[in-house]
Amino acid sequence: MRGIHARFAAAIALAIAAFSTPAQAENHEPRWSFAIHGGAGTIARENMSAEAEAEYRASLQRALDAGSKILAEGGNAIDAIEAAILLMEDDSRFNAGRGAVYTWEGGHELDASIMDGRNRDAGAVAGVTNIRNPILLARKVMTDSPHVMLAGQGAETFASEQGLEMVPGEYFDTDSRREALERMKARQLSAIDVDIKFGTVGAVALDTNGNMAAGTSTGGMTGKRWGRIGDAPIIGAGTYADNRSCAVSATGWGEYFIRVGVAHEICTRLRMAQKVEDEDVAAAMEAVARAEERDVIYISGQLPEDEVQWAADSVMAEVKALGGDGGVIVVTPDGHALYSFNTAGMYRGRATSEGVNEVAIYGDE
Ligand code: ASP
Questions:
Q1: Pairing state between β 337-341 and 357-362
Q2: Which of the four pLDDT bands, split at 50, 70 and 90, describes residue 313?
Q3: Which residues form the signal peptide (predicted)?
Q4: Is the C-alpha dihedral spanning 39, 41, 44, 46 positive or negative?
Q5: Which of 8 and 164 is assigned the larger pLDDT?
């Protein structure tokens, strides 16, 4: 790994002194990038019918297109990720919103979070049972409450005060998820044995103003008990966005993602690895001189895609070393959009202003 050199240290000092408005964004063509996931796991061709595969690909493409359209038209990263996650929450193929896994008691407890990379505003909800779209509630927590995370009944009360759509618990029911719970109980299997694929959904975006956002939504893991909360609603574990480094959304065995602090850890490694050019330091210093008291100015360095991939892979290797599995999607200020997963497959997609547009399922795609 590269050591910290003097220019980098100076850049960090400046970043701490002032902070955000990408000082170098003005030098580039406006570009955007976007990535989504619908869960990672032991997703193998032999377990999937051609029809099911086509349906998953179509669902992923719909979500990818919804977010990409917003970004291509100059919209906000936050709106793009919300649009994609909303579609996947309403799609019973994924373990989020409708189609969420069952708790041990046979109900559904949903978790979600959202983060705005401009100022690191964030909102999260855990263990909600009657909110149709938890990602909307997470966003309301971010924008309309003084808090970052609300749980259980209090979160439901806040949701109804905010006029969000409430649904009975049965709205989230699906036969396949019920069967997974029954199989787990009958054969004393673990959630990893029955879930096969995790199915959490997430999205990350860089918009044409250089702003980034991340969001994640899940039903958690089959048979969870005692108010268990996974990584998805935990800022820094399942979700993180910071204009200075990256936006990340994760899926996988949540306990391990919490212990590694996966999303924040990837962003930190990228922030520490950036190469900052002298002219960027000079531009940022000028911006600091012009800044109002509450302005945030930062220096955005450049990182080649293979270094970003390396950072994501090395954090996922730590998850693996502890015994966990799953995957992440990442976008960076340079417009890279990539995945890293240590499972057989991950439902995923990415699109950029440079013409990338793909959805994929298996590890060898
Ligand atoms: N990460 C989620 C959790 O542990 C599960 C998933 O990704 O599907 O709750």
A1: unpaired
A2: very high
A3: 1-25
A4: negative
A5: 164
Q: Which pair of tokens denotes residue 336?
A: 């890279």
**Residue 78 to residue 333: CA distance in whole angstroms:** 15
CA-based torsion, 165, 223, 257, 91: positive or negative: negative
In angstroms, the CA 51 to CA 143 distance is 41
Beta bridge partners of 242: 246
Are 75 and 206 a contacting pair, CB within 8 Å?
Answer: no
The single residue of 200, 239, 251, 332 carrying the catalytic annotation is 200
Show the DSSP H helices in the chain as ranges. Answer: 6-17, 50-72, 77-89, 134-144, 152-161, 175-187, 191-195, 254-260, 262-273, 278-290, 305-322
226-271 per-position pLDDT tens digit: 999 999 999 999 999 999 999 999 999 999 999 999 999 999 999 9
If you search the block for the tokens 């399942």, which residue do you land on? Answer: 238
Confirm or reject: Cβ of 262 under 6 Å from ligand 1. no
Q: How many residues are listed for the chain in this entry?
A: 365
Tell me, what's the pLDDT at 274? Answer: 79
Quick check: 274 and 302 in contact, CB under 8 A?
A: yes
Identity (one letter) of the amino acid at 265?
Answer: E
Nearest CA among 185, 169, 324, 170 for reference residue 257: 324
Domains of the chain: 4-20+31-97+113-118+196-362 (3.60.20.30)
**Which of 93, 194, 198, 260 has most ligand 1 atoms within 8 Å of its beta carbon, as the pocket-test mutant?**
198
Q: Which atom of ligand 1 lies closest to the CA of 224?
A: 9
